[in-house]
Each structure stands twice: as structure tokens, then as C-alpha cells.
Fold this sequence. Notes:
It is a single chain. The protein is globular and about 65 Å long. α2 packs across α11 (265-275) and α11 crosses α12 (281-295). The protein has helices at 6-27, 57-67, 70-73, 88-95, 105-111, 162-170, 188-191, 205-211, 237-242, 244-263, 265-275, 281-295, 298-303, 310-322, 340-345; strands at residues 43-49, 76-82, 100-104, 120-125, 132-137, 152-155, 179-182, 198-201, 216-219, 231-236, 346-347, 350-351. It contains 15 helices and 12 strands. The protein is α/β, with parallel strands linked by helices. It folds into 2 domains: 43-128 and 229-351, D-Maltodextrin-Binding Protein, domain 2 (3-Layer(aba) Sandwich); 132-224, 3-Layer(aba) Sandwich (D-Maltodextrin-Binding Protein, domain 2), CATH 3.40.190. Strands 2-1-3-10-4 form a 5-stranded mixed beta sheet. A 3-stranded antiparallel beta sheet has the order 8-5-9, sandwiched between helices. The relative contact order is 0.17. 42% of the residues lie in helices and 16% in strands. It starts with 5 loop residues before the first helix and ends with a strand.
Amino acid sequence: MLRPTPRLLLAALLPLLLAALLAACKSGGGGEASPTASPGPPDKVTFMAGFKPQANLPFVGAYVAKEKGFFAEQNLEVEIQHVNTPGDNFKFLGLGQVQFSTADAATVIERAGDDPPLGIVAIALVGQRGQQGFAVLADSGIETPADWAGKRAGYKGTQPTPDFLAILNSVSVDPSEVETVKVGFEPQILTEGQVDIFPVFVSNEPDTLRKLGYDVKVFEAAEFGAPTLGLTYVTTRDYLAQNSDIVLRFLKAALRGIEYARDNPDEAIDIVMQYAPQEKRDHQRFMLDTELAAAQDELTDKNGIGWMTPDQWQKLHDYLVKFGGIPGPLDDVSATYDDGAIRQAYRDGELVWP
């Protein structure tokens, strides 16, 4: 009888050894996932921006995150949509058809009174000051809000707004001393003299007016002590409770998109124009630059863009109560925001990546 040689034994055992080694790698040696194991198929979510395609900073964060692969790095497949009718994004969030959107911080508090409640919750504060202001022509003779007395001010939607009242209150002008008229959205209403004071989004109409050849001065309530806040990323409290990991991954990718836009604004505008080809490039750059400036202050320098505190939300709530932005105080202001994800997204002011 022939004995197997060592070479023959090795040849016979090698396939068994390789199979055992492969099994050990797959199991991770104890049931834990291997560092190189596949993360599985990406989680699919929908982000619906709260307005048309343009360079609003939270929109830019999502555009850049998608085009630069930041969502993919977080194992997310994100469909980007834009709302057709303002406010519908909240409806789609409540129905679960959309998982993430944007909203003005004041609107988040206002919508807390919806019946039935939609459970909209802010997960990051992108704008550290309000979006809105009041423009006057530079040669109008209006130097301070004290000069608003006896003038005509336009308003959009409901009036008077908390920002309008807060500015007048800061200079002890009674609102009855200012005539108010409902206006549309065309800033030429100001240049044609139909009003002396025109409500604007600070990252939008002031640039349009200057391009029309008119220099303007813009008053913002934050400049007069009002604790205004700007755009946020939002989801629903139910979705957050059930998908906290997805929320964190979405938020980290979107915030990295904002940081990339801050550091590479020309490339960011290239990406914006893919989504908004009908818009003027230089106007989109004005919008991006303006909103980046409003997104950064001492708080974000220390903690990161998108950071927020309970004190900010409480002060905004109290401000809205004082100036009639909401009919009465909420039982629980903390129901309108959740800072858990934003606190996990950063470490010592640096975005945790990947």
C-alpha cells in the first residue's frame, strides 16, 4: 500500500483550509461584521426642498452631497424633489412620502399647532438668523426704522409680521403710524414708488433690485435685537424615532455638502446650475454667499454649521408669542426640534466622517 506523500497531503488539505479561512472571514471570528463586509443595499429616502431649485443653503447641501457622492458614502440613495405648492412638503412628510425637507425655524414652531399635528421636527439649524428683511431705496431718506413713521410699507401674506413689529418696537414707533398695503412678489413695486418699504428675502430681492440699477438698504429684525432664526433641515418625530441612524447619515452628508460649498463655491454653483438651469448664475452665487454668511457665527465656529441650542428655540418661541407670530405659547417648545443627530454629527467642532 502506498503512503501519501506530504505534498499529496497538502494538496488534499489546502481546499479545506481555504474554505475554513473564508468562513472565518465572513463570520468575523465571532458573529460580528467584518470591517470589509458589504454594508448591504443603500437606504432609499426622498429629500423635498421647500421651494424651487435654487441656491438656498440647505438645498445646496443636498445637491452637493448627491453629486459629490457624500450620500453614497453614507450608504444612502437620495431622490431630490422640490415642492410645487408652498407647504405641501409638510403634508408629504406627514404622509411618509418624503423623509426630509426644509423649513424656516419660525414656520416649524407655527406648524406645531396644526390639527392634526404632523410632528415636524427640526434636526439642524442652517440659518443662524432670519431670512427676511425690509428694503428701502438708498436715496429715499429713510436712514433708520424711526423714519418708517408716515411711510407706506408692503406686506406679503399675513400682516403685520413679528419681524416688522419687532423693528418698530425697537425704535418706539407705533405700528399705526405706518401705512401697510398688501403687495405681490415683484420688487419693482418698490422702484415704482408704490411702497416705501418692501419685504424681501435678504438673499434674493436685494440683488435683483441692484441689478435693476437701484441701490437699497435692508433692515433685518436681528440687527435690532430680535432672536430670529433661518432655514432648518426637518423630518418627522416618528421617522426620527424609527430611523435615527438614517437621519444621522443624511444629516452628516448634507452638512458635508454645505462645508464643501463653503470651501468650493464656484464648483458648488456649477452643481446648483445642474438643478436650476433657468436661473442666473451670478444671482445664485449672491444667494449662496449671503446664506453662508448667515449660517456662520461664534456658535457654529465652535460647534459646526447647523448647530442649535434649546435656548435659541425658546427665545424664538417667546418672540413669536410676544409679536403675534403664534396665537399662544406652546406646551413644550422642545417638541419642535431635536438636537440629537447634530450633536452626534460633530466632535469638537469637526464633522465626523465617514
